[in-house]
Design goal:
The chain is 37% helix and 24% strand. With 519 residues, it is α+β, with helices and mostly antiparallel strands. The protein folds into 4 domains: 87 residues, 2-Layer Sandwich (Beta-Lactamase), CATH 3.30.450; 104 residues, Beta-Lactamase (2-Layer Sandwich); 106 residues, PAS domain (Beta-Lactamase, 2-Layer Sandwich); 123 residues, Beta-Lactamase, CATH 3.30.450. It has a 5-stranded antiparallel β-sheet with strand order 2-1-5-4-3. Helix 14 packs antiparallel against helix 15. The radius of gyration is 52 Å and the shape is rod-shaped. The protein starts with a helix and ends with a helix.
């Protein structure tokens, strides 16, 4: 059958046009979710994503799973950068260079040799294609191995998500390229009303604060602050940072510092010199009275000298009475400091300048010691004067010819003289604790016939209120006649005086009360 030349020409033209159209379609893929062709083949596997600018056009199932991570936020483009930036720190700059270079190959910053992942960036017809692959160094892993690795990754992700402290990763330039849930929570708290958390992640701690360990403060938008102890470790070209919460520790340290300041202000008004040495035997605290009493310079004590050094400095200034063995004495104080709570140390220092110090060392359970110095010069002078007055009064009473016994309001003997001892043949002042009016009355009864005088003396000593003195005579068993006189004294005390009478002498011829008052 003859062929129409015109129909053949039309058929040939149509075939050529269809071929050209197919070629164009293959070269320039359509934009939309169902993109096929060189940009994203239908049979292609692995992590591959196709973007039109920052809008996701299409992705393989693995690529969509990558963007569906539970810790990722924001748009698909933001989630992609958040997922890949920790492994490929140069991703941001590579995306900026891609229009000029057309294709860029990035290698993961961590991995094991040939197994390190690679990311290929391509610009095809205005679309950006990203392919993530792991070069195979051997046979492909089994399904079971892949599932185990996936489960392990999921467990690690959940552990980091539940960590009760901020953990994040910084690029070499200080950008935050990954963060856990606690970091994101703190970042969300600092957002202004209406703002959303996106990529890049905000920097909570300045990069220079993470290059060294130490305490960092993070102010809160609603007022107040969080405190963290910073630490970090370098991983390849990036840095993993940890912020350990220290709010409770900071509060405790602040409370302790305020308490120490209160103690310091209180100690500053004490007249007793106080120096506290810690468990390392170094001076930790001292008050102004310690400076005044020891004369040690402020700069010396501010340098936190050891206890032995302070003792040596006091010895050089003649502030310590020279012991027989200074080394043994200082060693004893050092051992006291080490032994803790078992023993204390008290001394009285009589200094060449006339001062008298009472020195006490009180150990602590942590090995420290508190050294207290008190100036008792006035007290010692008063004590010496009082003792001298007592000795003078006793010598005056001993010079009297009458035997005298003085009883307190409770009937206890408080004083007797030599004439009393000679008359009654004993000295009750040697055992004052056992000498009362009842015991002495029993001694008197044993040296004389029965007489109501001794019972009268007992009643007079124990009686209170107004009393009148009286005098009576008693004949002793050896024939001596004595005059017994009882007289009230101030404070409920009672004086009982005994005098041997000569033949013909009356008991009341001499006033014992007048003699005592003159004494």
């Amino acid at each position: 059958m003859p062929v129409d030349p015109g129909l053949a020409a039309v058929t040939l033209a149509s075939a050529v046009l269809a071929a050209l159209l197919a070629t164009v379609l293959l070269m320039f893929p359509a934009r939309g979710r169902g993109v096929t062709g060189p940009a994203l083949d239908e049979g292609q596997s692995g992590i591959t994503l196709l973007f039109d600018g920052t809008t996701l056009v299409d992705a393989t199932p693995e690529g969509r799973a990558l963007l569906a991570g539970p810790s990722l936020r924001g748009t698909a483009w933001d989630r992609l950068r958040a997922a890949l930036e920790p492994r490929f720190p140069g991703l941001e700059s590579a995306l900026l260079r891609l229009p000029a270079e057309g294709a860029i190959l990035l290698t993961a910053s961590h991995g094991a040799g040939a197994r390190r992942q690679v990311l290929r960036l391509e610009l095809l017809g205005g679309l950006t294609r990203l392919r993530l692959a792991t070069p195979q160094a051997g046979p492909a892993p089994s399904v079971e191995a892949f599932c185990c690795l996936n489960d392990e990754a999921t467990d690690l992700r959940e552990m980091l998500k539940a960590a009760p402290l901020p953990i994040w990763r910084e690029a070499s330039g200080g950008e935050v390229i990954w963060a856990n849930a606690d970091y994101l929570r703190l970042a969300t708290e600092r957002l202004q009303p209406g703002d959303e958390l996106g990529w890049p992640l905000p920097i909570l701690f300045p990069p220079e604060s993470t290059t060294r360990s130490g305490r960092q403060r993070l102010d809160r938008t609603a007022g107040g602050a969080h405190w963290f102890d910073m630490t970090h470790c370098d991983v390849g070209d990036s840095r993993v940072c940890y912020a350990l919460p220290a709010d409770a520790l900071q509060k405790a340290e602040t409370g302790l510092r305020d308490f120490m300041q209160t103690l310091a202000r209180t100690f500053a008004h004490l007249p007793v010199g106080l120096a506290i040495f810690d468990g390392q035997r170094q001076l930790n605290l001292f008050n102004p009275a310690f400076l005044d009493l020891t004369g040690l310079p402020v700069d010396f004590l501010s340098g936190r000298p050891r206890l032995a050094t302070v003792l040596d400095a006091l010895r050089d200034r003649n502030m310590i009475p020279e012991p027989r063995d200074y080394r043994a004495w200082r060693k004893r104080l050092a051992e006291l400091e080490r032994t803790g709570v078992a023993e204390t140390h008290d001394e009285t220092w009589s200094l060449p300048g006339g001062q008298t110090y009472r020195v006490s060392a009180r150990p602590h359970s942590d090995g420290g010691v508190a050294l207290m110095i008190e100036d008792i010069s006035t007290e010692m002078t008063r004590t010496r004067r009082y003792r001298a007055d007592l000795e003078l009064g006793q010598s005056v009473v001993d010079a009297l010819g009458e035997g005298i016994a003085v009883f307190s309001a409770s009937g206890q003997l408080v004083m007797s003289n030599e004439a009393y001892g000679q008359l009654w043949g004993h000295d009750p002042s040697q055992r004052l604790a056992e000498a009362d009016v009842t015991a002495l009355s029993a001694h008197w009864r044993g040296m004389a016939p029965p007489t109501p005088v001794w019972h009268r003396i007992e009643e007079f000593v124990s009686a209170g209120g107004e009393r009148a003195d009286w005098v009576s005579e008693v004949r002793l068993s050896d024939g001596r006649l004595i005059a017994c006189r009882a007289a009230p004294l101030a404070g409920g005390a009672t004086l009982v005086a005994f005098r041997t009478l000569v033949p013909g002498e009356a008991a009341g011829s001499i006033s014992t009360e007048a003699v005592i008052r003159r004494a």
